[in-house]
């Protein structure tokens, strides 16, 4: 290739790259505080169910682009927002008071009771947990409400901040039932299965759907962003993309999801 042709080709590449940069530069960056629990937030690959949902919505918000900051616990997340270090928050529950606006419900949790299939007890309501030994997530006694608290027996109840430990304690037969989010449990069980020594993680499970679904929102500083986000959210729900994101993660765990 002669030198003038090479020069023209290089110039074309630079112009193309510059055009792409300019297109990105025209978008306003929105710094979003993200959580620290998988599979909803996966910092290493900037994925996870909630990340994928936000990305899908922002496709329909052409004037903005999300910039993620992962690793926040809820308290630190909300404090960073109030201090102005981030522009938006995820995982915003209705009971939390923050300045700004709230989107329509975005994020769905499904807390369930889980038992091993071997001699699985009949659990059709929260009241049926009475008399059973329970392992659950940290803070469950406050988060799941008074009905759940009323069935707790102090000497047969444990809370842990580590989902894999919670799954192992159930699979190892130390507790009758595990209570918590279904996808977090399935993710923990998958990680246990990846370890050859964790043979107890292969036990089949029974899922008891006894808790109401939990919904959380996005929080932004101004109503225009909430309106734009709600419009995009409506579009991905109408197209089926919203449900497909959840379905894809359930498929990774070889599990048929509970219908929402």
TrEMBL record:
Gene3D superfamilies: Periplasmic binding protein-like II. It comes from the Bacteria. This is Substrate-binding periplasmic protein. Keywords: Signal. Residues 1-22 form the signal peptide. It comes from Simiduia curdlanivorans.
